[in-house]
Amino acid sequence: MSKSFKTFLKHTAKDFHNQSVNPPVVRASTIIFKSMQHIRKTQAKAQKNPTGGHYDYGRQGTSTTHILQKILTKLEESYHVFTTPTGFGSVFLAIFSVVRPGDEILVADPVYSPTRLLTQDYLKEFNIKTIFYDPSDLKTLEKNITKKTKLIFVENPGSNSFEFQDLGKILSIAKKKNLITAIDNTWATPYYFKPIKFGFDMSIVSATKYYSGHSDVMGGSLAVNKKVFPKVKAAEKITGLRLGPDDAYLITRGLRTLDVRLDRHRENAKKIAAFLSKNKKIKLLYPYKKDSYNFRMWKKYYSGASGLMGLKIKAKNINSVRKFVNSLKLFGYGYSWGGFESLVLHQEFRETGNRKYLNLAKDEHLVRLHIGLEDPNDLIADLKQALRHLKW
Ligand SMILES: Cc1ncc(COP(=O)(O)O)c(C=O)c1O
Q1: Ligand 1 nearest atom to the CA of residue 159, by list position
Q2: pLDDT along the chain (392 residues), means of 10
Q3: Cβ(206) to ligand 1 under 6 A?
């Protein structure tokens, strides 16, 4: 019987040995073998089948991390998924696996600001040059490809500014030039878009966000195709970037309700977007208005939208934006997103980074909202009272 993914998530990872509906948390540094021959046999199996969950030491994982990797591999429809202690660990692992001194990489201008720091500043010290391209003008991508270009790193939509790119075009450019492609797909997760199936070589999701869904754990996932698998496997071994079993368990638990939660985040966000889109002083950064390029690019590639959106607010005085943000009662002020709760964050330079293509006028301010699982009518009422503090 073929099962839909929604059903698979509810029925996977049962522990028939212990008669438990959930898998055990296996914590181990040392893994015990019955004999000298047994350890060698296991190592031979691991060599023959490197994705098969054969371990000789805890740094390679335990059955608990393997279960999570298997679930994610199915969700991603990828060759394999590596799991890391944070989402940013997966960003690092993806880039570290494939770029070497002398290489150049092309990175979407609105990437997550730590990804910008890593590529723009840190990699420079290793003689790796980064060029940022305009997400809305892929000519800036194409014209900057040189003989040294190795990787295109996309984040979609843009971090905090929410530009949607023409992903198909990026892949066709990459294919023509034989470049490796990676995408940060944290906003959508493979529930709404499957990058590896679509043709990307690597896909990153911060499991800290929607996968875990409860704001109590950090983790990352890096899905890969067969082509880049050996490089990432080698880099994983050398960096020791591996998720611990307790965190793997929590993320597996979160995944059981990924579809239910994301469906609700989407519905709630749509209602909030409908409310906010009526305000003439606010530009909604979310795929809601049908006539925009961003909407068309989202519609072309995604089957849904998550709960994270931006507001570009036109206001002469930052104090009034501050008042709006501070007077929200149901939106907590803080980093991260993807949990059950609503959050708000004013986007300053620290969040956006030193972007080349972010055109923000002096009287325009970016505010990010994460729409949680609360009753959307309560969220709208809260926004309504807080918006009264905005002075245009
Ligand atoms: C788009 C995106 N990618 C990656 C990360 C990094 O994930 P983590 O916080 O789990 O390291 C974040 C964190 O906010 C993010 O927003």
Answers
A1: 1
A2: 85 90 96 96 95 93 96 98 98 98 98 96 97 98 98 97 98 98 98 98 98 98 98 97 98 98 98 96 93 95 98 92 96 97 92 87 94 98 95 79
A3: yes
CB atoms inside a 10 Å sphere around CB 20: 11
- The residue whose CB lies within 8 Å of the most ligand 1 atoms, and thus the one to mutate among 83, 206, 350, is 206
How many Å is the maximal CA-CA distance in the chain?
75
Q: How far is the C-alpha of 57 from the C-alpha of 72, rounded, in Å?
A: 22
Distance 183 CA to ligand 1 centre (A): 13
Integer Cα distance of 156 and 184 in angstroms: 7
* 59 Cα: distance to centroid of ligand 1 (angstroms): 23
Q: Residues with Cβ < 8 Å from 141, sequence gap 6 or more?
A: 106, 133, 134, 152, 170, 173
In eight-state DSSP terms, residue 118 is I
* Ligand 1 center–CA 213 separation, angstroms: 13
CA of 83 relative to ligand 1 center, distance in Å:
14
Q: Find the 44 Cα to ligand 1 centroid distance in Å.
A: 36
pTM of model > 0.85: yes
**Residue 165 vs residues 71, 113, 186, 218: alpha-carbon distances, Å:** 28, 18, 15, 27
Judge contact between 310 and 162, C-beta under 8 A. Answer: yes
Residues 6+ apart with CB under 8 A from 388: none
Contact 59, 204 (CB under 8 A): no
Q: Whose CA is nearest to atom 10 of ligand 1?
A: 87
Three-state SS sequence of 301-368:
HCCCCCCEEEEEEECCCHHHHHHHHHCCCCCEECCCCCCCCCEEEECCHHHHCCCCCCCCCCCEEEEE
> How much distance in Å is there from the Cα of 87 to the middle of ligand 1?
5
Cβ(140) – ligand 1 distance below 6 Å: no
CA 225, distance to chain mean position in Å, is 17
Distance CA 368, CA 294 (A): 17
Task: List the structure tokens of 55.
Answer: 């371990």
Length of the chain, please? 392
In this structure, are residues 220 and 84 in contact, taking their beta carbons and an 8 Å threshold?
A: yes
Task: Tell the residue nearest (CA) to atom 14 of ligand 1.
Answer: 336
